[in-house]
Amino acid sequence: MATAVSPRLPAAAARERDRRPFGRRVLEGVAEHALAVALSAAFVLPLLVCVVTSVMTQQQAGTGELVPQPLHWGNFREVFEVMPFARDLWNTLLYAGLSAVGIVVSSVPVAYAVSRMRWRGRNAFFVVVLATMMIPAQVTSLPLYVMYAHLGWIGTLKPLIVPAFFGDAFSIFLLRQFFLTIPEETIEAARVDGASEYRILRQIVVPMARPALAAVGLFAFMFAWNDFYNPLLYSGNSASGQTLAVGLAGLAKSAHQSAYQLQMAASLMFLLPVLLLFMSAQKVFIEGIAMSGSKG
Amino acid sequence: MTSTTASTTADRRPGSSRRRSRRGSPSRSPWSAVLVMVSPFLVGLAVFTLYPVVTTLYYSFTNFQLGSIRPTEFVGLRNYERLFTSSDTFWVGVRNTLWMVLIMVPLRTLYAMFAAWVVGSVRRGARVYRTLFFVPAIVPVVGASLAFIVMLSPTGPVNALLAKVGIEGPAWFGDPQWSKPSLVLMALWACGDTIVIFSAAMLDVPRELYEAADLDGVGRWQRYRHITLPFLSPVILFSVVTGMIYTFQYFTEAFVASGSASAVQDSSQLLGYPGQSLLFYTTDLYQQGFVYFKTGYASAMAWMLFLVIFGATVVMLRMSRSLVHDSGRP
Where do the TM regions start and end (chain B) (predicted)? Predict the structure, then answer.
């Protein structure tokens, strides 16, 4: 569970009383780090390419060189001219921010009901929640498209934001995992004291599960920020409802295709908020990810 | 904490819930509260899941065409028949998707296990390495795809590096032979979330087992094979099943990669460039449903996908029952 992710390392701990000869230990240490550095390079290289290409001139971008000569900062400004970057950014912020709020607000009570309340059919209900995760988006998107078209929502952000306020299976699952770690005595004591379920949820569970809410909110934000399929379908063809993911793919396909430096500058501005968010909440993230794979 | 006045009130009027919980049988929550808690989800389930799932099934038996004025007719199984018999792009998408499921999913799992093992065995700096390995996983797919297209462009940095050691690099996304392997490389690069899950599972292995193995002078590989691996097996299962479900629905990477690679070509170029090598089941479905507006046909495709994903998941979970070691499971 969440507590499992700590900087302690099993192999290192097991070798606390290492009986191998010193020379061999050093050699193995060097080999391990060489391997780790090589892997790190493989993970970092594409991002490095993205960064250096974003400050290259058009002539240099795509030549395979990794040292920008000369530095061309104008690409970042030019992105705003070749695509409606500011508007797409605003749309993306609206989509990601509002859907994160919606998912947290609507998923918390459901997670509470399936983890800390007792009622007949609870387990069956939870299975239904999990089962909805298995339904491919392609199965629901055709009728939803028709429905949104009737409502006049195509080309707006509504098809992206409104469903977020009706709960999200993955978030319910993650929140349930966290809620289950709250001691039963705490909740039962409040019940005995006559607190209503709403009050227990609001005044005990939510404050105790604040890191969990943060994790779920961050996941929802990042999912929406990265989402391509839904914005492509419901807002893609109309420029006014376009998000950055769709705008960026459009930039790559447009006449500017050969302008790698602009694509990379735009990509970088697209990645940066997510990277900053990740760095400021790295622990929350990693624990949430580890938890999603736990047996629970 | 909770106010004392509240507890005295409860003492004066002992609620039925208290008496029941004393006897050990759990108290039931009031139905009204349960309903209030779950009703937003129930409404969402009905509107955004159940209704569309059933409607897609209905569409799949009709010749419904979005935006067409032609009246919709019931055509029975004709859409399904067409999937299997006509020479449409259907089988191309099926073949390409299966290729990805069979090649990408196992490779990604193995690579993530390997990276987690590397992180777990270095003595210092594991946190730094883990962060570096993880960052690509949070990078938006569209941005990552574009970075890969630049990196793997025929005259890009990777081929420049290969040229330095005397290897002529392929055209990557521009070559039907190499376009799918390029996507596999991208998937390996972005496997950080799986690495984190494997790392967490490795920390769950009881340390006494390693110590006992050390005392017995067991080798590294033996220790991994007989101690670590059994503890990882539930995570391997998780990774393979979720990877498979994801890959059956593989869309964004393929859409962006084939879209931007084909941009210099004729603009009427269909999805799947180069040479239909990147036409996957879902990109084909998108094309049929939202480009050609063959809603009925696309609905049949969607339902087939649903059945296959469901079936494959059930089969995987059944088959793995004997292989997965579930330690400490309550």
Answer: 29-51, 98-119, 131-152, 183-206, 227-248, 300-319
The residue among A151 and B66 whose pLDDT is bigger is: A151
Residue-wise pLDDT for B107-157, tens only, equals: 999 999 999 999 888 878 888 898 899 889 989 999 999 999 889 988 889
- Chain B, 187-206: which have a CB under 8 Å from a chain A CB? 189, 192-194, 196-197, 199-205
3 state SS of B273: coil
Q: Is A166 within 8 Å of B83 (Cβ atoms)?
A: no
Q: pLDDT tens for residues B16-48?
A: 444 444 444 556 788 899 999 999 999 999 999
**Residues ≥6 apart with Cβ < 8 Å to B72:** B62, B63, B64, B65, B296
For A214, the token pair is: 């943060």
The CA distance from B180 to B99, in Å, is 9
Distance CA B22, CA B222 (A): 51
Q: How far is B184 from chain A (nearest CA, A)?
A: 14
Give the residue on B whose Cα is nearest the Cα of A226. B140
Would you tell me which residues 132-161 of chain A have a C-beta closer than 8 angstroms to some C-beta of chain B? 132, 134-147, 149
B68 shares contact with chain A (CB less than 8 Å): no
Q: How far is CA A236 from the centre of its chain?
A: 21
A228 in contact with B at a CB cutoff of 8 Å?
yes
Chain A positions touching B118 (Cβ under 8 A) are 32, 35-36, 39
Please report the residues numbered 77 through 96 in chain B whose beta carbons come closer than 8 angstroms to any beta carbon of chain A. none
| Type of residue at B134 | F
> What does the alpha-carbon distance between residue A288 and residue A222 come to, in Å, rounded to a whole number?
13
Angstrom distance (rounded) from CA A104 to CA A98: 10
Query: ipTM for the complex?
Result: 0.85
Cβ contact B260:B149 at 8 Å: yes
Structure tokens at B66: 């979005």
Q: Say yes or no for a CB contact (<8 Å) between B52 and A39.
A: no
Residue B45, number of CB atoms within 10 A of its CB: 19
Give the 3-state secondary structure of residue B74: strand
Contact A267 B26 (CB under 8 A): no
Q: Do B259 and B271 meet the contact criterion of CB atoms below 8 Å apart?
A: yes
Q: Let me know: does B107 contact B190? Beta carbons within 8 Å.
A: no
